[in-house]
Amino acid sequence: MTTLQLRGLTKAYGAFKAVDDLSLTLRDGEFLSLLGPSGCGKTTTLRMIAGFITPTEGTILLDGEEISSPSGVVPPERRQMSMIFQSYAIWPNMTVAQNVGFGLRMKKLPKDEIARQTAEVLRVVQLDHLAGRYPAELSGGQQQRVALARAVALQPKVMLLDEPLSNLDANLREDMRSEIKRMHTEFGITTVYVTHDQAEAMAISDRIAVINAGRIEQLDTPHRLYSRPTTRFAAEFIGRTNLLEGRRQSGRMVFDGFDVPSSGGADGALLASVRPQNLRLLPRRDGAVPSEPGMLFLPGRVTERIFLGERWDYGLTLASGTGLRAAGPPEEDFATGSEVWIAVPEAAIIPVEDEPMREAAE
Amino acid sequence: MKRRTFLMTTAAAAALLPLAANAASHMDEKIAPLYEAAKPEGEITWYVVPMDSETAERVGQKFTELYPGIKVNVVRSTATVAFQKLNQDIDSGVANCDVLTTSNVAHAEDLKSRDLLLKYAPMRKGEALAAFQGADPDDFYHITTAGPMGIVYNTDLVSEAEAPKNWPDLLDPKWKGKLAIGHPGFSGYVGIWAVKMEELYGWDYFDKLLEQDPYIGRSSIDVVTTTAAGETAVGAGPMTSALISAEKGNPMATIVPTDGMVIITSPSCILKNAPHPEAAKLFMEFLLGKEIAELTVDQFSTPIRGDVTPREGVAPLTEDNVITATKEQIIDGVSVTAEKFRDTFGI
Amino acid sequence: MTEQATTIPGERTRRRAPRFDWTFVVFALLALLLVVLVVSPLSRLVIESFTHPKEGGFTLQNFVDVFTRQRYLTAYWHTLQLAGVTVAMSVFMALPMAFAVSRTDTPGRGMMFFAVLGAFIIPPFLGAIGWILLAGPNAGWINRLWEGLTGYEEPLVNIFSMWGLAFVIALNVFPLIFIFATSAFDLISSEMEEAAAIHGAGPLRTTWLITLPLALPAVLGACMLVFLETIALYGTPALIAIPARFNVATTQLTTFFEYPARIELAMAFSVPLVLVTIVLLAAQRLMLRGGTVAVSGKGGAREPMKIGRWRYVLLAHGILVMLLAVVLPAVILVTTSFSVAWAKPFTFDNMTLQNFHEILFEQQTVRDAIWNTYKVAFSGATICTVLGFMIAYMVIRKMVPMASILAFLTVSPVAVPGIVLAICFYAAYAGPPLSMYGSSLLLIVAFVTRFLPIAFVSLSSGVRSMNPELEEAVRIHGGGRFRALTEVVAPVLKKNLLGVWILVFVICSRELSTAIFLSSHNNRVISILTLDLSEQGEYENLAAMGVLLLVITTAVVAIGMRFLGRDFMLRRN
């Protein structure tokens, strides 16, 4: 059983904190993604886990043993981890089989055992027919498979992936993503996956840590992350969203022109997120106001629309002047300038933490 | 290095076995104990000036032939370079050289005054001609070769009638651009020659020489090779080398100047810190012996012993055809003259 | 919002002791080695030049002695004159060739490439000997031919003059300008020329107005390198300048070693040479930085320019340079090596194998020197490559703090001419307590110091081009740093390593000026022996030695080209 714990991990370069007091725990066999924009500290975190970087503060524990702390790190080669690099980092001077068997060789396994295990892994990634080739003779996808095979071959305690799909073209990317998922299911290796692509993270992860400016914004399952974002950054980074400014007042969230019940929290300024997918448009011809329990119906007008094939993307304006975006099915067609009802489930309006507010509160 | 030395000596030993037996039977009985003492040292390094490198190598081989088991490392250069290298050895605390044979007695005297020489009175020191004996009354060095500087010319370019007859003839404008001399800053022969020229004809001689646009070789031997090649037509050079060159078929001849050949007597000395002192003593005996005299006389040298006759073409030394420099002249004069020469000729 | 760190119940935090970091030890050893190789010798330059030779203590007297002596000042002046003329001549030789090879449809471009490579391979002192035989004013083959054809006795060319000396040096150093100029020309996109053409400029005007100005910074930078090569050169002046009565700085330097050796004067005399070198190197760097701006971009597609009849002019120029730099000296050296007497016609009577017999079987000295040469070159190349690789790796991967100091120390010998470096090494290690004078080790150490910058710079660019993830992959998969080096970095860079090794081997096998004061008879290398034996003017034996040296060097280079592609010797890093 493998557990990996990061406790209060910080990496500072001078005054700049690339990673700032980051803590999380991976369960055995879990697939966790570190998701964030470039420069958010996700790769630094991964490299601290790998042992390439010494933390400024905090510790990393593998199965309860401290492997990184400011006073010293267990070198990468003794961490029983493996890693897939952005560049694949397939050694060009070794054949496919030599690449895959390298970790086993480092474990000083007998030769025939190395050969057996290498062949086994290569069969799983369907590269057994290329065992004797050199990487230069392989396609990008095949190289990626070699990297994958190499990483799983030594049955590591933790497997680390650093944006492994970013160098592949779109079609291959999906294939490889499911290949990675398949490997994970097959071998059940505890995995940390770094990416800036939220769709990729959503598709592959058990849990996602959204990272911004060196801190974890939210750590949750993909579904909860989408449906219940807790911070403005998480809400904006995962999918698209509408952000509404308002106030919390005597148990309700009050916005310009409407209000909904609040699940709790102190009174004061408030920011809420509502996904365009949660908004539905209805034609508004006469004065009749539709009503449904738990639903809000707001009058608005279509100011622009873009047809995206699988859906319409509408730009809307409320009477208060607030702008919103909504997604509509292709068959429901509202022309620019139409007056509409915007149907919003009250539960879909999620209060989120906002960095400036949070700082103001502290 | 070791392996190669081993191979060499084995090969040499195999080849020379019958000869060695022969040589040993002829070996001077006085020398035998010295050879026995020297043999374990196995080699000797000889810094040598007054002969060309081919002759020097042959001399070294002759020694090994006579005294099997002792290899000679021949290091031939001009007097100044040899002395410079030796002093670099000394300054560095490295003992390389066993025996130095130099054409500039000032260098031997200098080493003696710095207490760097080994006093050795060779058993054969009395065998040389009287004129070449007793150069150093304290036995730190001994004259082992003598060689004349004379006028050399290319017979293809110059007829015997046209050739210069004396030293001032070299200043004839017809030799402009066709004259070679050596550099007293390098060559001991040229150094002594220059001292004597200045004494006889004043520094004016060199000012006029400059106007001749001469080719300046570093070694006096270069004068001979350059003239033989036709690069220059006449020159002031060592007559021994010129005769060797002529024998090889080069268009080369020598002239004894009417005002005299400059005789350069070259001393040999053993370094006090010689790494192979016994072999060095043996080598000193060899340098004074008959075998080397026979060998070098064959190479047109002027013998220092009475029991070998010079080859035909080698000018006999007489009272009125030689110019000799005193030891004092050499010690005091050569470096001063060399410096003046550098200022005049710019090099 | 961050997840609370939770300790797994029932498990205490154990701590693995971090393993001892050996990289620091390696760093310390490398730093120490560089102190021995670079700091200690080079610091002698400053120390000795300001120290009173007898009493010790600070003095300016050495500089006063040097700068008040007319002959010494003349030597500097001659050196500057010589270097200026050499630069002009080499530009004239190299620039048209570089232009022809890089930009035009001139035929015979492959031949021009080999001309440059050949000129690079022939050691300067051998080229000098070749040209003494070719252009000696009276006996030189060219002048005799001239006299035979015209009847004029006045020589056509006289090698024993400043012009002759500059010419011979230029024939040896023009490849530098060629290399820099071609790589600059190669970066200029054809589109720039086409843009000029579409606006009405013909090929000549385009070249003059667009191409040449764009390449100018690189060419000027190369000119400075040629200038520096020339002022630091010893072999060629020793052979030609003395007979020509033209004293230059390097020949003057050697006279300070005559007994009594005046090391302090030699040091003081060297200081201006080092200063000039530093200034010009700095200027060259500035120049090249400007150059990369001017010829920025990916270079774009390049189409050889169609230059019509001009291509025959360029072809003729290329053939002429090849004849002068490679063919004539090589032919004269080969024929001389088989001649009884070099100045005689090369007839059957005049042919012999005696010279080769003499050097190979008669003269122990020559065999020793050949053995020494290859021993020193082999060790020097190996040490340079290994050391250069280790330092480059540490520096590029920033494995230690202050790695840039290592880099600075490693390249700093570039600023010191070889002959001055030799003096520094002589002062530092020849005497007690190490007394290394006359040992091959001293030569190897000096050569390593001198050529380490080449290995370092070249291998740095190799390491820089490698993705560090390749090494990280080794480590995360269980291999240590050392294994990453030996199993991945070195194998991946094996062509670079081999290329550097061969380059340094070739340069070591012919280096003269660094060896000059460090050689006694024990450690003489061929270059030194050639110089020593040239005193006597016996060119037949010298030519035989030179031919032997050329054959071996060419074989090594040919092997390198077979494995590394044809331009590995001339690649600019």
Give the topology.
The complex is a heterotrimer of chains A (362), B (347) and C (573).
Chain A: E1 4-13, E2 16-26, E3 31-35, H1 42-50, E4 57-62, E5 65-69, E6 72-73, E7 81-84, H2 96-106, H3 111-124, H4 140-153, E8 158-162, H5 170-187, E9 190-195, H6 198-204, E10 207-212, E11 215-220, H7 222-227, H8 232-237, E12 242-249, E13 252-255, E14 258-261, E15 268-274, E16 280-283, E17 295-307, E18 312-318, E19 323-328, E20 339-345, E21 350-352, H9 355-361
Parallel strand pairs in A: 3-9, 3-10, 7-8, 8-9
Antiparallel strand pairs in A: 1-2, 1-4, 4-5, 5-6, 10-11, 12-13, 12-15, 13-14, 15-21, 16-20, 17-18, 17-20, 18-19
Helix pairs in contact in A: 2-3, 2-4, 3-4, 4-5
Chain B: H1 2-26, H2 32-38, E1 43-48, H3 53-66, E2 71-76, H4 79-92, E3 99-101, H5 105-113, E4 117-118, E5 141-154, E6 179-182, H6 188-201, H7 204-211, E7 215-217, H8 220-228, E8 234-238, H9 239-247, E9 252-255, E10 261-271, H10 277-288, H11 290-298, E11 322-324, H12 327-345
Parallel strand pairs in B: 1-2, 1-3, 6-7, 6-8, 10-11
Antiparallel strand pairs in B: 3-10, 4-10, 5-8, 5-9, 5-10
Chain C: E1 14-15, H1 22-49, H2 61-67, H3 70-103, H4 109-121, H5 124-135, H6 141-150, H7 162-187, H8 190-198, H9 203-232, H10 235-240, H11 249-255, H12 263-294, H13 310-337, H14 354-362, H15 364-396, H16 403-411, H17 418-430, H18 440-464, H19 469-476, H20 481-492, H21 494-510, H22 526-534, H23 539-564
Helix pairs in contact in C: 1-12, 1-17, 2-12, 3-7, 3-9, 3-11, 3-13, 4-7, 4-13, 5-7, 5-13, 5-23, 7-9, 8-9, 9-12, 12-17, 13-23, 14-15, 14-23, 15-16, 15-18, 15-21, 18-21, 19-20, 21-23, 22-23
